[in-house]
Amino acid sequence: MREGTATPVRRQDYTAPAYWIRSVELTFDLDPGKTIVTSRLVIERNLDTPPQPLKLQGEDITLLRVQANGESVSFRHEPGLLVIDNPPGDNFTLDIRNTCCPDKNTQLSGLFSSDSGLFTQCEAEGFRRITYFLDRPDVMAVYTVTLRADKKRYPVLLSNGNLLEQGPLDNGRHYAKWHDPFRKPSYLFALVAADLVAREQLIRTRSGRDHLLQVYVRRGDLDKTEHAMNSLIASIIWDEARFKLPLDLERFMIVAVGDFNMGAMENKGLNIFNTKYVLASPATATDTDFMGVESVVGHEYFHNWTGNRITCRDWFQLSLKEGLTVFRDQEFSMDMAGGPSARAVKRIDDVRGLRQVQFPEDAGPMAHPVRPDEYQAINNFYTATVYEKGAEVVRMMQTLVGREGFERGMTLYFQRHDGFAVTCDDFAQAIADANPGSMLSTRLETFKRWYAQAGTPHVEARGRYDAEQRRYVLTLSQWSSPSAQQPVKLPYVIPVVMGLVGPEGQALTLQLEGEYGHSGTERVIVIDDERLELVFVNVDVPPVPSLLRGFSAPVRLDDGLSDADLLTLLRHDSDAFNRWEAGQRLALSRMLAAVPGAAPAVLDDALVDALRAVLRDPSLDPAFKELVLTLPTERYVAEQLDTSDPQRIHAVHQALQAQLAERLHDDWAWAFEHHQVTEGYRPDSEQSGRRALANRALGMLVRHAVATGDAVWPGKAYGRFKEAANMTDRLGALAALVDAHAELAAPALERFHTLFKDEALVIDKWFALQAGAPETADGRVFTRVKALLKHPDFSLKNPNRARSLVFSFMNNPAAFHRSDAAGYALWAELVIEIDAANPQLASRLARLMERWRRLAEPWQSAAREALARVAAKPNLSDDTREVVSRALE
Length: 889
Ligand code: ZN
Known about the structure:
Helices cover 41% and strands 20% of the residues. The protein is an alpha+beta fold. It is an enzyme of class 3 (hydrolase).
């Protein structure tokens, strides 16, 4: 349904529902062309609200019949609603019969067809595309579901909860009846009718209860389910151990589907996953894919408590479940990774994502608080701010109350709210109340500005050392830029984990004026106002401050450190995150210095030597080295500038890469030789770190060889590509050839395609690699993308495939931001085309243009024109309309 005139929904307008739905009995006569849905709702008027009509949501469905208490009842339609003006009393049952059409459901919201069968996706507002309902998360009901379908085509019939019975029916059909004992909102409903097989595992948890775990996939994919199953078991064990949260279901199912807009969905007891986050075998999935499976399986499993047992009162509270659950999956992955260094690597990865996606979002036209105040299309608010910044807000709470205090807070949260639909305030209150006297509880109202204010705060830090007095005075101040909706911003509570590092790299003891005794070498300083002055005493040497360790708050820090200071931190900081950060900042400053001029960028000796020292340091993990030796991305550089010229940034980036390749040539060769993994494949952090470093080294060596006309390293890369024992090494070698535009890239790509033509997820990589390669002066990447759009394997209908080619290309700055605007023309064309079938996917593509105001000319004008072209299109979905109109505002 296209209304086109969507009025925004506002958080302040929340009112409790006028009716409750206590139980739901659903019967599905499943057919891809026309499915008949019969629904019996036990309804109770909410006596706390004035008497009013019952208004049920419905979208793209056809009503056949409606009865109340078994008798006909008068009803009418409003746009998107079925209205019953005079329900028969305060308690009644409503019987509804309607149809929907899975085959025509290209949006993938509601009940849709994929090649293996029929699947549902109900979050946020998909249930109304299945049947008429009070489709809001604070209406929670108990569901009993009967599925009827052709037995041959759909041998597996699943829904939430426990299987009550199943059996044959006439005409080759069969049925299954499911009951979910837990009250849940409609967005957590799910059904699957498909031709699938399952990997099964019985487990007994600590409490002594037995559970059946199942991972359902297509027949040929069973050999790729071991890692998902192991990840599920690890998640169950972890949540019990860390938060005392046990599995509350007899049966827990994961189902993989190839057509899916998002990563996965936490439907109660029946998680539905994008195949990308289930299927993994060493031959077809990279180390990064294995990690992705582990974290998404964990994420969805953790939602069972944070999301399902306690859910959101309304969609403005989305971060209540998402921010918290991302925090939990990050902690899970860190605990799984192992020691301090592997944990730091995971943290660096997460922060890189946050700064590359969420920071720009927070500075652009779609900026919104972690708890938004209004939206037009709720699907547009499944954002990095709600998810990743929301997770940082939870992490800051943990930093303020300590790990044990946080666990106490979680316990109180469940004591108070289990079984209910609540708000972000309820969560913060529980964590604070469990920790009286903490900075979280004494400054709670101020802390909660993290939920209410959009934008990334700035923190400025300046230190003064007084050798005579042996004092070090550190002044910290914060400020936030005004934004359209929030012209005045108030100060935040900002936890700053810090240390002081001496000139020889020693960690100095931190003693504040007025304190007696020693206080350790690291502490949490809390800024809770515009300015804070700290006086450290008994400081014998001039220190270098190491602030915001582990990225303890999502802020932009300006600490004014000199290159010499940063080199000290890069060499010696005991905090691995800040060591990495120091290296990034040194590289970034070289890039930023070179961008405005025409002069070539130069990697100076000091930085080269420091990077070499890291690469050669036997005490450091390969995974960490790989991160330190990776330059900040072009996108990250662009974000530091008010106006950016994507082509100039690309040129600078390429020049520095070339120098890194050349000046560390022998070190790269050493790194490549010495980080080979010869034992059997394990996707753990130790092995994957070695592979990551060896692959980066190979990339550098091939790049340098192609630049100098040498054939040895490209030949070695090709050999490695052919012989590789796993996908990480195979793709690494292929990427080395493709990224360097080596002659051997073409035969390697062809061979890769032949080898994996039947593996959809691997073909996605094949498209993504080509679309993401560094652009050349003669535009080879763009030309390739245009050709690949016509490749027989390409299709815009499948979200993974569309992302692999189109999104990868549009995230490739130099290829996309062409001075002839051809990239933008293609963007406009594709947004419009995708929008007609799948608005959620289209609006995500549309968002890739939202930072257009930051572009220099001629890009800025060309981008505005492309946006205007899309905006002028009548019939645009609400999702895409909201994005382009906010971008143009
Ligand atoms: Zn989630």
